[in-house]
Amino acid sequence: MTQVLHSHRLPALPAGLAWRMQGPADLGQVESVHRRAVEGVPPVVVKHFTRAFLHGFLAGRGVVPGIETSGGELVGFGLLQHDLLPDDDPRPHLGLSQRPPLAKLAGAAVLPEKQGEGLQRLLIRARIALAEPGKLLFSTASPVNPASWKSLLSEGFLIRHFEYPYGGLPRFVLVRLPLADNADIALEYQDIASEDIPAHERALRDGWVGVASSGRPALVRYQRARVTP
Ligand SMILES: CC(C)(COP(=O)(O)OP(=O)(O)OC[C@H]1O[C@@H](n2cnc3c(N)ncnc32)[C@H](O)[C@@H]1OP(=O)(O)O)[C@@H](O)C(=O)NCCC(=O)NCCS
């Protein structure tokens, strides 16, 4: 059974759109939006989900806020995953003294004709609002998918690690932790082209943190900054 989301917890949407939690009965429309969004986009940019994965998600591995038109057409959705595989755990790479419980922003899709209108930013905000307080939120994004990593950086996620999941595809690992409030450290920065993977790996190994996007062609701004757990 599906559920109308409590709108007071969620960001306001443009006129004519509303939030609705997607459930198992919505598998068809969720899969259809996903397929249309990733059509022609190779896996190096974005993972293509199977119907079984989406079904498992809608059946309880996570929650799926959807954006629908007043006519009930789904135009975008985001996945917030609670039930994670051990391989997915970024905490060993983060040097955290504590081990906070995790939730993952595990994917999102917006119909091609609705892209570029800020809906992904709103889907990220909605999932932050829906996550249980105290959970460490993380996500992964391909360096060659700027719409994905830019919007995560804009919503307070930081690039903290680099990995090669899904059979060896390069991905930033982004985590939502506050930057230490230290002006001297924050003043030191460098910009790295999004596709320069060795430079990202080097910077992350050397203690830099990706904090923002910067200019075109797509650049990631790194600061040498401590991050508070
Ligand atoms: C990724 C996706 C969800 C983005 O949705 P969207 O609603 O168009 O994104 P937004 O309009 O909220 O834009 C988010 C940011 O990306 C930027 N952006 C959007 N498209 C971009 C592009 N092609 N190149 C560079 N930046 C882009 C926007 O300017 C915005 O940045 P800003 O906040 O700094 O201005 C959508 O393109 C999609 O469904 N793609 C296929 C599936 C996918 O890649 N999912 C992501 C996996 S997590």
Q: Could you name the ranges where pLDDT drops below 50 across 5 or more consecutive residues?
A: none
Number of helices: 7
Ligand species: coenzyme A
Rounded average pLDDT: 89
CATH topology group: Aminopeptidase
Number of strands: 11
Structural class: alpha+beta
What is the fourth-level CATH superfamily? Answer: Gcn5-related N-acetyltransferase (GNAT)
Q: Largest sheet, if any? A: 8 strands, mixed
What general form does the structure show? globular
Distance between the termini: 37 Å
Supply Rg. Answer: 17 Å
Give helix % range: 25-40%
User: What's the SSE pattern?
Assistant: EHHEEEEHEHEHEHEHEE
- Strand fraction: 25-35%
* CATH architecture classification name: 3-Layer(aba) Sandwich
- Assigned CATH class: Alpha Beta
Protein topology:
Blueprint: E1 17-21, H1 27-38, H2 51-61, E2 62-63, E3 65-69, E4 74-81, E5 102-110, H3 119-130, E6 136-141, H4 146-154, E7 158-163, H5 165-168, E8 171-175, H6 183-187, E9 189-193, H7 197-205, E10 208-213, E11 219-224
Q: What distinguishing features does this structure have?
A:
11 strands; binds coenzyme A; 229 residues; alpha+beta; three-stranded antiparallel sheet
Polypeptide structure, described:
With 229 residues, the protein is an alpha+beta fold. It has a single domain, classed as Gcn5-related N-acetyltransferase (GNAT) (Aminopeptidase). The protein has 7 helices and 11 strands. It has helices at residues 27-38, 51-61, 119-130, 146-154, 165-168, 183-187, 197-205; strands at 17-21, 62-63, 65-69, 74-81, 102-110, 136-141, 158-163, 171-175, 189-193, 208-213, 219-224. The strands form 2 sheets. Strands 1, 2, 3, 4, 5, 6, 7 and 8 form an 8-stranded mixed beta sheet that branches. Strands 9-11-10 form a 3-stranded antiparallel beta sheet. A hairpin with a 5-residue loop joins strand 10 (208-213) and strand 11. The chain starts with 16 loop residues before the first strand and ends in a 5-residue tail after the last strand. It binds coenzyme A. Residues 37-38, 41, 46, 107-110, 115-121, 141, 145-148, 150-151, 154, 213 line the site of coenzyme A (COA).
